[in-house]
Amino acid sequence: MAVETLAENLVSRLEALTARHGELESQMSQPEIASDAARLTELAKERGRLDKLVSIYREYKQAHTQLEEAQQITGSEQPDPDLLQLALEELPGLEAKVADVVERVKNSLVCNDDLDVDSCIVEIRAGTGGGEAALFVRDLYQMYSRYAESQSWKMEVIDLSPTDLGGLREIIFSLTGRGAYNRLAYEGGGHRVQRVPVTEAQGRIHTSAATVAVLPEPEKVQIDIKSDEVREEVSRSSGPGGQNVNKVSSAVKLIHLATGITVSMQDEKSQHKNRAKAWRILRSRVFDHYESIRRAERDSTRRNMIGSGDRSQRIRTYNFPQNRVTDHRINLDLYYLDRIIAGELDALLDALQAYDRQQRLENL
After folding, report:
1. How far apart are CA 117 and CA 148, in angstroms?
2. Which residue from 91, 222, 244, 284 lies 20 to 30 Å from 188 (Cα-Cα)?
3. Phi, psi (5° rounding) for residue 98?
């Protein structure tokens, strides 16, 4: 029986990661690092991401060595009868163990690419469709908030822009909880809705759109943006909010000089609160910018990857007359839109994750 073993390129990669794991352990034992809490936390997180992978790889090497020894005994011309009998008894179990560990190593390699971030910032904006698009933004926000509640994630609204009809031109909110970012990372892109608007007297179906961005919210140790790398502008807020908002310079605009990424915040009456919110969003957008470049380089040889988060890409259609949701990236139709819009996203997210993992496995 031919047993699949790890290809040479994967072994080389795993050896490099094992060496890196050893370097991290060595660095963490150094007094100057042990006394630096931020640096120690950063190294501990990186080591933690490698722990499982390195452990499984060591298990693979041990099982592979045992299998080779058994195969050498069974393949020798004049084997010791007792050793031959023992090797023949052990061979099926060793072959099964190696095959199992190979799959576990591959899955761990795939998971090792995932960001270790348990907080994300979700931005939803109305696209074409006027007032109906704003109502669709509200519906998407409620869908994600209900799903977040079912996952026991913490949600915080950072900024929103309501309309007179009860819709939202834009909403930015954060979700914090185990797996929040990796679970929703595939939601970035263009979402389209087909339904009869509440303002439509003739009963005609309209198509509207919204864009969703899901940005990892890193901890400060994961991205360090210096104050001299950002230009800050303050001004008086515009729009409703009372005399204080219009008389005091509370609106804050941050511009990241290296990338040109800009964040404006005027939701709060306090300049301090607006600045804190703007910095949260700026860190996420800058982190996502550089992470997207890294992903593009990593995925350049892969086919049909679905986690790009490109807002110009139409990823999903919500057809209310047919009670159907279609995810165009994996050609999946689910005929219970009413439950999905109520927050039952698990089947959809499971299918997206399974497809993405399978693509990654095929390209290892």
Report:
1. 16
2. 222
3. -65, -45
**Position 100 pLDDT exceeds 60:** yes
Q: Which residues does 216 contact at the CB level (< 8 Å), separation at least 6?
A: 115, 117, 119, 120, 181, 185, 284, 287, 288, 291
pLDDT in tens, 227-281: 899 999 988 766 554 444 445 678 899 999 999 999 999 877 788 899 999 999 9
User: Taking a C-beta distance cutoff of 8 angstroms, is the pair 56, 108 a contact?
Assistant: yes
Q: What is the DSSP letter of 336?
A: -
Tokens of 16: 């490099």
- The CATH-assigned architecture of domain 119-221+307-362 is 2-Layer Sandwich (3.30)
Q: Which string of b and e fits 19-31 if b means at least 16 CB within 10 Å?
A: eebeebeebeeee
Q: Do domains 119-221+307-362 and 227-295 have the same CATH topology?
A: no
Question: How far, CA to CA in Å, does 142 sit from each of 47, 101, 347?
Answer: 37, 42, 18
Q: What is the DSSP letter of 326?
A: E
Dihedral of CA atoms 358, 361, 363, 364 in degrees, nearest 10, equals 170
Alpha-carbon gap, residue 68 to 48, rounded angstroms: 31
Domain 227-295, what fold?
Double Stranded RNA Binding Domain (3.30.160)
Give the predicted TM-score (pTM) of the model: 0.76
Locate the domains of the chain by residue range. Answer: 8-112, 119-221+307-362, 227-295
Q: Which amino acid is at 335?
A: Y
